[in-house]
Write a structure and sequence with these properties.
eight-stranded mixed β-sheet, globular, alpha/beta, seven-stranded mixed β-sheet, disordered N terminus, about 725 residues
Length: about 725
């Protein structure tokens, strides 16, 4: 059947129904999509076995062989590639003629978002589900992943599924196939794909991609500290542009190019395109491409910032998924750099990347080559599947958020949001989600489902008129019976979804903590243009009042420690109680737990935890926490309760060192004993250089050479001078 004949059959199918006619209609519809260079989505809804049988019939009827399809779930016909939904990220960067997603096995939003971007023009996404009328009662297996200890899977909401059903119903480009036949959707008019204009680079598919390749090459061959930043929606060929540029650079004599991304597999598209243009090149393992005497090699983001690492060029793909602290470390090294990121994607946000990374770029770069890739590569513009996925998963929330007008903070009001109403309020949900995505380096579609459906979540929103100024997401944790609390404190039980009581009970040895009730601040975000106006403090005050009224003992938060964040949480009366001894693989920072007591038992627990932290931090800084940056250490020490010295001998010995009467090594015990107290109570008297010298040498016990390098001085003598200058100012 030709595309021109497709529309009459669609009309007949809509009128007459019937599974056989529905299959013919989908086949005709796919031909129309292929002619337009578009992709489509089909909801196959009915009993489980019928859905799988219908999907198998569709695969047999469509032009591409069934063995070229990807099937996520169970019940696939023989010869079809099957993949569990948990492994969806394995195929990122690849291309599929179509994907069957068995929602009966669990509807994972991350997997849907990831796989939709792999489907090429003319391809289809088939979603197998029960009939939409029963989605409110559907026992979705994915709900088990949203269940926390103390709650049954039946307590997980269905708000996300209700919103998905509404998005499907409102989008005429989605075809609905049920046992009765075609029950929804419409066939678009036949139109051919508009041919692309001429491209200046024969290796590129679009002129946008050609400009991106040129900009990356310029970043390598031009002056240092002039990075290139590539930004695009998905499917615009930015990863391929990095690969094409890398190949051209190696052919021009560049010896070593480092590539990085959230994981080795995330740079496979880059390496594939480079290999195609480098005859004789060979792959070594997952992340290395060798060509003559040159190499393109993957390195994890946290290793790229290591001292002494100096490739000719560094290519950072999916930069929005990498912590800003790690990216800033690359900038500070003066490396030649190119960053590529997705404006809105299934993980990370280009808008958030620009907001958070922009100031670092301004501080460390002489100029920026910025290229925005708009023209799709895998499909034609105005693609129906892309449009639906963006709306259903709110991947376009950041893009829709307009800059705020001038607002009067006096009109601010804070409320705990009803999540059922939120799921039905597109304007509020877009604004809230866009703010959360742009404020956090890694926010995924599944987080939206957690936000709407997890049984222990509350959402607080600060609004000025209809504008969302700030938001906080709070998870309720703890409240265990004494027997379970004892097992948690002993490390014998780790109930899911209870990070604070588990960490405080087991890792800090506070056996009574798991019995208490905690509210964990999972996310907090303030609009960039409204920061430093007390909005975050007022929001947290409202959260504290509501949680205290609900019987909560403590509020707490866990985040990748930075001096800025520590200062913020300190200012709102949260105290540090535990600093993780290892850097987080995703954040690149040490996880810091901070507490704020609400009830009398909660306030006492917070004080006990802070006193323990104050006792243990100096010894931890000398060994497992030696790599923590001095700015973070100083922020933690400010105002931390310190044990009082029992005698004046330490103070006298330190004075002898300060005056030059004693060497550092002879007075080291007294210096170590006095430094935490000095930095806590008298830090305002010291210069920044003195404060950092005290952290580096006394608390972290780094070598004189390391201290001198970190402080920018020539050697031991200058470091000693800084230390003596500090102690000479003590009474």
């Amino acid at each position: 059947m030709t595309p021109a004949a497709a529309e009459p059959m669609a009309s007949a199918a809509l009128q007459d129904g019937g599974a056989g006619v529905a299959v013919a209609c989908v086949r005709s519809w796919q031909q129309v999509l292929a002619a337009r260079g578009h992709r489509g989505m089909v909801l196959v809804a009915g009993p489980r076995d019928w859905c799988r049988e219908c999907a198998g019939d569709l695969l047999q009827a469509l032009p591409a062989p069934a063995d070229q399809w990807l099937w996520l779930g169970a019940g696939a016909p023989a010869g079809v590639t099957v993949l569990p939904a948990s492994a969806a990220e394995r195929v990122l960067g690849s291309e599929q003629v179509g994907v069957v997603f068995d929602g009966w096995q669990g509807l994972n939003p991350d997997a849907v978002g990831a796989l939709s971007g792999t489907i090429r023009a003319g391809g289809l996404l088939l979603l197998l589900m029960p009939v939409p009328a029963v989605w409110g009662e559907f026992d979705d297996p994915f709900k088990r992943l949203l269940t926390v200890a103390g709650h049954a899977p039946g307590e997980v909401g269905s708000r996300w599924l209700g919103r998905l059903r509404r998005c499907l119903k409102d989008d005429d480009s989605v075809l609905w196939v049920e046992p009765a036949g075609i029950t929804g959707g419409s066939l678009p008019a036949v139109a051919t794909k508009v041919p692309a204009g001429p491209v200046s680079n024969p290796d590129c598919l679009t002129e946008d991609q050609a400009r991106a390749v040129h900009a990356v090459i310029r970043a390598c061959q031009g002056q240092r500290r002039k990075p290139t930043v590539l930004v695009s929606d998905r499917g615009r060929g930015k990863s391929a542009a990095l690969g094409i540029a890398a190949a051209r650079l190696l052919q021009a004599g560049v010896r070593r190019i480092a590539v990085t991304g959230p994981r080795p597999r995330s740079v496979q598209t880059l390496l594939d395109h480079a290999q195609q243009l480098l005859p004789g090149s060979r792959r070594v393992g997952v992340g290395v491409l060798e060509f003559a005497e040159s190499v393109i090699a993957y390195s994890p983001p946290d290793q790229l910032s290591a001292t002494g690492f100096a490739p000719d060029m560094v290519l950072v793909d999916e930069a929005a998924t990498i912590p800003v602290a790690l990216l800033e470390g690359l900038l500070e090294q003066g490396l030649r750099l190119a960053f590529a990121t997705t404006v809105h994607g299934y993980e990370g946000s280009g808008r958030g990347f620009e907001l958070r990374f922009g100031p670092a770029l301004a501080r460390n770069a002489r100029g920026i080559r910025h290229v925005n890739l708009r023209q799709p590569v895998r499909w034609a513009a105005d693609d129906p599947l892309e449009r639906f996925i963006d709306r259903a998963l709110l991947l376009d929330a950041c893009r829709q958020n307009a800059p705020l007008p001038q607002l009067d903070v006096a009109d601010l009001r804070v409320a705990c949001v009803d999540r059922a109403a939120l799921a039905d309020d597109d304007g509020l949900l877009d604004a809230l989600w866009g703010l959360l995505v742009s404020s956090h380096y890694r926010t995924r579609p599944r987080d939206l489902r957690v936000l709407l459906d997890a049984p222990n979540i509350s959402i607080f929103v600060s609004q000025i008129g209809k504008h969302v100024a700030a938001a906080a997401v709070v998870a309720r944790e703890g409240g265990f019976a004494p027997q379970m609390a004892a097992q948690i404190a002993a490390g014998k039980r780790r109930p899911p979804g209870h990070l604070l009581p588990e960490s405080i009970g087991h890792q800090l040895g506070m056996a009574d903590a798991p019995q208490m009730s905690f509210g964990r601040i999972v996310r907090i975000a303030v609009q960039p243009g409204l920061r430093r106006r007390g909005i975050g403090r007022r929001l947290l005050d409202a959260v504290a009042a509501q949680q205290a009224a609900a019987g909560c003992d403590c509020l707490g938060t866990v985040f990748g420690a930075s001096a800025t964040l520590v200062h913020f949480w300190r200012a709102v009366q949260y105290g540090p109680v535990r600093l993780g001894v290892r850097r987080g693989a995703r954040s690149g920072a040490h996880a810091l737990l901070m507490l704020h007591g609400l009830s009398a038992p909660g306030r006492e627990l917070s004080k006990r935890c802070q006193r323990r932290f104050a006792r243990e931090l100096p010894d931890q800084l000398a060994d497992p926490l030696r790599s923590v940056t001095p700015r973070v250490v100083l922020a933690l020490l400010a105002g931390l309760p310190q044990p009082k010295l029992s005698a004046d001998q330490s103070r006298e010995r330190v004075k002898a060192f300060a005056s030059g009467q004693a060497e550092y090594e002879d007075a080291v015990a007294a210096i170590v004993a006095l430094t935490p107290l000095a930095l806590s109570e008298a830090a305002g008297r010291f210069s920044e250089a003195v404060r950092q010298a005290l952290v580096l040498k006394v608390l972290q016990r780094r070598s004189w050479a390391d201290c001198a390098a970190a402080l920018g001085v020539s050697g031991r003598r200058e470091v000693i001078t800084l230390l003596r200058a500090g102690f000479s100012q003590l009474d």
